[in-house]
Write a structure and sequence with these properties.
- Helix content is about 50%, strand content about 10%.
- By secondary structure, the chain is an alpha/beta fold.
- The protein has one domain: 3-Layer(aba) Sandwich (Rossmann fold), CATH 3.40.50.
- The protein starts with a strand and ends with a helix.
- The relative contact order is 0.20.
Length: about 150
């Protein structure tokens, strides 16, 4: 089984000082080891994570760029990862969802992630922003901070 991972979950997983670091670490450990799930990661989520984890305005001790790149490369290449790539229909599906659900510009990246997961057949998404994703009827939204 594959569970999609949102950027906020990956950031809290990577950053020791993040408020939900322990809860997210426990959640990922349970998903991978006990539920035999694979983490569904997209390039978009990894790019956003790289941006956030290296930002000194967000963290007192941000990751160094080389450290963050190495961490994300290891994650992408890991056996516990399902690499999910946008396909040729992802853009059209993203635009369709934005239009049909009446979503604005601040919802573009979330909608693109949802469309990528849908195309890959991924039905579960771990996010710390559950209300933002509950609008997508094809996703079961899981808040890792509330399941631990």
């Amino acid at each position: 089984m594959i569970i999609g991972i949102d950027t906020d979950v990956l950031v809290h997983w990577a950053m020791q000082g993040a408020t939900r670091h322990r809860a997210v670490r426990r959640f990922v450990e349970v998903e991978v080891s006990k539920r035999d799930s694979r983490l569904g990661l997209t390039p978009q989520v990894l790019h956003e994570t790289l941006h956030v984890c290296t930002d000194s305005r967000r963290f007192e001790k941000p990751l160094e760029m080389k450290t963050a790149i190495s961490l994300l490369r290891d994650l992408w290449d890991g056996k516990e990862t399902a690499r999910l790539l946008p396909g040729p229909t992802t853009l059209h599906r993203t635009l369709e969802l934005l239009d049909s659900l009446g979503l604005g510009r601040k919802r573009i990246l979330d909608t693109a992630l949802a469309a990528t997961l849908e195309a890959a057949g991924v039905k579960r998404l771990a996010t710390l922003n559950a209300p933002d994703f509950r609008i997508f009827p094809f996703l079961e939204v899981i808040d890792p901070a509330r399941t631990s």
